Amino acid sequence: MKKNRNLAQSQPMGEVRVIAGLWRGRKLPVLNADGLRPTTDRVKETLFNWLMMDVPNARCLDCFAGSGSLGIEALSRQAQAVTFLEKFANAANQLKKNLANLKTDKGTVHHTDSLQFLAQKNSGEPFDIVFVDPPFHHNFVPQVLVHLAQNGWLANNALIYVETEKNHAPLQLPEPWQVIKEKTAGMVVSRLIKVS
């Protein structure tokens, strides 16, 4: 049994590509692990077209970071800082290695459960952009949105990107939040929410 577990830990690596900015074209190794589903280049390109004017100098929070693809793309495009939340130790460690290889000190990785982390009151600066791309079919998004709204995580006029499976229940947003962009690509729905 132990031998099989070791084999699982030494699975081949996948990779994600930085689309634009400082590290354009860089390919970064990511774990091939169950539940780790990096945002596709196509969806990522749409998202960052939406955010083009908002990312420079923004403070970003990457919940359920996984490969860190979204947060690293934001750093490449001149975000001020990105905080990454990742529950699984191997993924968090790989993300730290990738940030070190990019020679940036603007990314901070927390090896933590995102829901537990966000359930606390924020004691630091609020975030301008939040990426919420959790594992599908766990219904984490409603809880995340409640925590973000109630615990001081969001700056005035913050933007929240939410990626869900196509058959996810409709999002219940606090007043006066609104979905300002939405796109479906295959079985993935991407939404950009404006907090006001």
Overview of this structure, please?
Its EC number is 2.1.1.171. It is a single chain. The chain has 196 residues and is an alpha/beta fold. It has helices at 2-9, 41-50, 69-76, 89-101, 114-118, 141-150, and strands at residues 13-17, 27-31, 59-63, 81-86, 107-111, 127-132, 154-165, 178-185, 188-194. The strands form 2 sheets. The protein has a 7-stranded mixed β-sheet with strand order 5-4-3-6-7-9-8, sandwiched between helices. Strands 1-2 form a two-stranded antiparallel ribbon. The termini are far apart.
- What structural class should be given to the helix and strand makeup? alpha/beta
Count of helices? Answer: 6
Strand order of the largest sheet: 5-4-3-6-7-9-8
N-to-C CA distance = 53 Å
Mean pLDDT figure: 90
Q: Helix amount, in percent?
A: 25-40%
Count of distinct strands: 9
Shape: globular
Low-confidence segments, given as residue ranges, are 1-11
